[in-house]
Design a protein that fits this description.
The complex is a heterodimer of chains A (498) and B (96). Chain A has 498 residues and is an alpha/beta fold. Chain A contains 16 helices and 24 strands. A five-stranded antiparallel β-sheet of chain B has the order 1-2-6-5-9, with no helix packed on it. Classes of the chains: A alpha/beta (498), B mainly beta (96).
Chain lengths: 498, 96
């Protein structure tokens, strides 16, 4: 089993069809496949044990992903936004590596280690040049396809391993080969080092939906490219959608009439943002995808019809589905368990466990699957009576006040209904009486005065149980986020400790 | 035949990957499929010449075998002379 099959099939079926557009160059599936064969040749000749990318998204990320797969070597896209010290630590963990991208930075950080470095343009040119002398591409049963360093919002980055036997079943189980119509074009703006960036390449190529690559996200560049390339599909993280919509609300004139479907995931979607998006794009199908690096991307999704049904609904249970992540894929099983590992019934909040071929649950350092193949996601959540999955934050983020489990999200949702509040975070703060109590950090909208402590406490008390009323309140200029829009709760917690 | 095993036709270009397997011999164009292509290609039996389509899934009536065609060819697939059927796709919304 090898993910290179995905590109090989596309190139075999329609070699001249355009598969990828980046920086004005249009790549056919045949050209991408030949470049991947050439890259595999170059990678094999280097004798390296890993293929790393230290660069923004481009055709090189696709060529490197498939080239590494053909060569049977793990592909390790690195986060080029990391600070020097953090990046240097990761580089030491993948020696000896064939590194594509910022060769100068690698040399500066690790001058002694003998990496094989090559710039993006040189790599692509060499891959194309070596294509004809490459082997047939008859791939071996390679093992690890991709190694991704987790973002490490709570601890040092872990090296998550995704095997060919995880990624290929994920694609074959969720995507129908060559199912995209000729006009379909998917705008890819997620970074190459994120699981969504890997999944976008694999899914798009297997469905033969043309990839329109945006090297690095910027809302104006996204809108311009979506319009000029007549994008029909896009995947965004919620912060990207918020920034795109803010530009449109500010009067940005763009033609998005070609857009048919927008999928989102990778972080919590604020209910008011998705409601606004549904109104702004009445003819677009929205899909909420929930997944993790360790599960090869999506494990549950809320589809376009379910979004519209929830938007129209008066039944509060149906309406609430706008904030759910939908139902598990037919190819995975999901269970909610309590702290002792016992299964919970509908409506009860616990830890989300998942099992299936696509679930690796494996790190270079250890395997996190239990003996029956279940992966504890460390995400908290519940499944309602109709089978819809709702997330309640990371299990580490659940606030436990006097034995009562509270989800930060429900408190944040109530705070966000206040007209003067732009952003809000709820975290557990140490409490002598309760062990832990609620602390909130809030950010004002421009030119708005934040409500008093009494008003905030009354707001929570009137909407939720009194245990949710915050003991500590902090007013900030901005909340701390990482570059993928993930709230850094440990930093908010640290604020209350200091 | 474990999942992921690739089988090649002895009589045409068809290649399939096993999605769900059993210890059963799969035929293409009327001849047993093999893991290594034979040096000399055989002839396609006219009763099994409808062809295979790349990216399509083929199943037996009992549902014990499921194959993904990864390379198209002139022969068609069968088990013990019984033709395999195309499996209906159940499309999911695109999530990546």
């Amino acid at each position: 089993m090898n993910i290179s099959l995905i590109l090989q099939m596309a190139a075999d079926a329609e070699p001249d069809r355009i598969g990828l557009v980046c920086d004005g160059r249009r790549w056919s599936y045949g050209a991408l496949w030949r470049a991947a064969l050439g890259a595999a040749n170059s990678i094999s000749n280097s004798g390296c044990s890993h293929v790393a990318l230290l660069d923004e998204s481009s055709e090189a990320s696709a060529i490197a992903l498939f080239g590494a797969a053909i060569a049977g070597i793990p592909y390790v896209p690195l986060n080029y936004r990391l600070a020097d010290a953090d990046l240097a630590a990761l580089l030491k963990r993948i020696v000896p590596a064939y590194i594509i991208g910022d060769a100068e930075r690698v040399a500066r950080l690790n001058p002694e280690s003998g990496y094989h470095t090559t710039g993006r343009a040189t790599f692509v040119a060499e891959a194309e040049r070596l294509a004809d002398s490459a082997a047939s591409g008859e791939e071996d049963d390679a093992d690890i396809a991709v190694q991704l360093f987790t973002s490490g919002t709570t601890a040092a980055p872990k090296a998550a391993l995704l095997r060919h036997a995880n990624l290929l079943p994920y694609i074959l189980g969720t995507v129908e080969f060559a199912s995209a119509a000729p006009e379909e074009a998917g705008l890819v703006s997620v970074p190459p080092y994120h699981i969504a960036g890997i999944a976008a390449l694999l899914s798009s190529i297997y469905s033969m939906r043309r990839i329109v690559m945006l090297p690095a996200f910027d809302p104006d560049a996204w809108l311009a490219l979506a319009s000029s390339e007549r994008a029909t599909h896009a995947f965004v993280v919620p912060t990207m959608l918020a920034r795109i919509i803010a530009r449109m609300d500010a009067g940005a004139k763009v033609d998005l009439s070609s857009m048919q479907a927008i999928a989102y995931g990778g972080g919590r979607m604020p209910p008011e943002l998705i409601e606004h998006a549904l109104e702004l794009f009445p003819d677009v199908g929205f899909t909420n995808a929930y997944g993790l690096t360790e599960t090869s991307s999506t494990i549950a999704l809320l589809g376009p019809e379910e979004h519209r049904a929830a938007q129209r609904a008066t039944d509060p249970n149906v309406r609430a589905r706008l904030s759910s992540v939908g139902k598990p894929l037919p190819t995975v099983q999901i269970e909610i368990r309590d702290e002792e590992g016992h299964g919970l019934s509908a409506g009860q909040c616990g830890e989300i466990y998942v099992r299936g071929d696509q679930v690796s649950g494996e790190y270079k350092e250890r395997k996190a699957l239990d003996k029956d193949g279940w992966f504890p996601t460390r995400d908290a959540g519940w499944i309602d009576a109709d089978g819809y999955l709702f997330l309640a934050g990371r299990t580490d983020d659940v606030i436990v006040r006097g034995g009562e489990n509270m989800s930060p999200g429900e408190i944040e949702d109530v705070l966000m209904t206040h007209p003067a509040i732009a952003d809000a975070a709820a975290v557990g703060v140490p409490s002598v009486e309760w062990g832990e109590a609620v602390g909130i950090a809030i950010v004002a909208k421009p030119d708005q005065a934040l409500p008093s402590d009494d008003e905030l406490r009354a707001l929570i008390r009137n909407r939720l149980r009194s245990s949710r009323v915050p003991e500590r309140i902090a007013r900030l200029d901005a909340l701390p986020y990482n570059e993928m829009g993930k709230l850094l709760r440990r930093e908010v917690r640290a604020l209350f400790r200091s | 035949m474990k999942p992921g095993t690739k089988l090649k036709s002895a009589v045409c270009d068809t290649e399939v990957m096993v999605i769900r397997g059993a210890t059963i011999v799969v035929e293409c164009g009327g001849s047993p499929m093999v893991e290594e292509k034979p040096a000399q290609r055989g002839t396609i039996h006219p009763a099994f010449a409808a062809g295979t389509k790349i990216g399509k899934r083929y199943v037996d009536a009992a549902g014990t075998v499921e194959l993904l065609c990864v390379k198209a060819g002139q022969g068609s697939l069968s088990i013990a002379g019984a033709a395999l059927q195309l499996k209906d796709a159940k499309p999911l919304p695109s999530s990546d």
